[in-house]
């Protein structure tokens, strides 16, 4: 096995995702101000992948000539190719271990004061944190370190990929219409997560595990400027690489906080 494999990448045709491309999902994207601001692309690669090669494959990906000519970037209201080759790639491993939505059960427990028995989100006094308006306990749990609800999830749980998706949806885009009930956020989180990760059944026994390695990445050009995502210091500008080693495929997931698209 090559300890430093030389990866080559091939762009794949745009995939139709049952959850993400569903009309209901897209309608919620519009309501939450993120429609048109999420880009997903798929690539195959040639070499066997091992998790310890995650840094090498991420750097190779953003420096590959084929990827450079294929990768799309948000520019105003459009997604275009800018043929930017990375000079450096910052990589952070994102935990991806959650197999079912019971992870969010504590949000549904009225004793935790996020929702009422009906599933309606509890409102609170309005504050602003990191330029986000907080007007309910759900957003307080995400952003307000001073409120008791913030401690409902541990730091480790907050780093889970499924939590990162949930946070992206709840905080939304520029013109985000907040939900009164928590169910739509959970339903769309589940749909996106199910579309993007691979679940493996082990040959011996009935144990399931996640077969996708998730990386949060910031790719920078020769001037040191971030381009995947741009303005990477903003909370809602997020770029992920999802590596499916079994099928030798990479999925890019990019959200750029920006203009409203109907």
From TrEMBL:
Record keywords: Cell projection, Cytoplasm, Cytoskeleton
Pfam families: CFAP300 (PF14926)
UniProt GO cellular component terms: axoneme
Localization per Swiss-Prot or TrEMBL: Cytoplasm, Cytoskeleton, Cilium axoneme
Function (record text): Cilium- and flagellum-specific protein that plays a role in axonemal structure organization and motility. May play a role in outer and inner dynein arm assembly.
Family: Belongs to the CFAP300 family.
Designated name of the protein: Cilia- and flagella-associated protein 300
Gene this protein is translated from: LOC105367567
């Amino acid at each position: 096995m090559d300890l430093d494999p030389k990866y080559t990448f091939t762009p794949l045709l745009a995939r139709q995702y049952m959850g993400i491309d569903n009309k209901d999902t897209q309608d919620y994207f519009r309501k939450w101000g993120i429609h048109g601001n999420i880009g997903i692309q798929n690539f195959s690669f040639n070499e066997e992948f091992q998790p310890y090669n995650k840094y090498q494959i991420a750097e190779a990906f953003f420096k590959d000539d084929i990827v450079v000519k294929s990768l799309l970037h948000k520019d105003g209201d459009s997604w275009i190719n800018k043929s930017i080759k990375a000079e450096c790639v910052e990589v952070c491993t994102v935990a991806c271990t959650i197999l079912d939505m019971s992870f969010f059960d504590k949000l549904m427990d009225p004793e935790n004061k996020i929702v009422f028995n009906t599933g309606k989100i509890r409102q609170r006094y309005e504050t602003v944190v990191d330029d986000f308006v907080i007007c309910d306990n759900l957003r307080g749990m995400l952003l307000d370190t001073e409120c008791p609800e913030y401690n409902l999830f541990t730091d480790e749980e907050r780093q889970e990929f499924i939590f990162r998706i949930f946070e992206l949806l709840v905080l939304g885009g520029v013109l985000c219409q907040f939900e009164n009930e928590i169910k739509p956020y959970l339903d769309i989180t589940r749909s996106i997560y199910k579309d993007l990760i691979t679940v493996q059944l082990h040959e011996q026994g009935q144990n399931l595990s996640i077969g996708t390695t998730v990386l949060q990445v910031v790719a920078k050009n020769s001037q040191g400027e971030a381009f995947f995502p741009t303005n990477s210091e903003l909370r809602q500008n997020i770029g992920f690489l999802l590596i499916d080693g079994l099928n030798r495929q990479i999925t890019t997931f990019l959200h750029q906080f920006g203009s409203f698209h109907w």
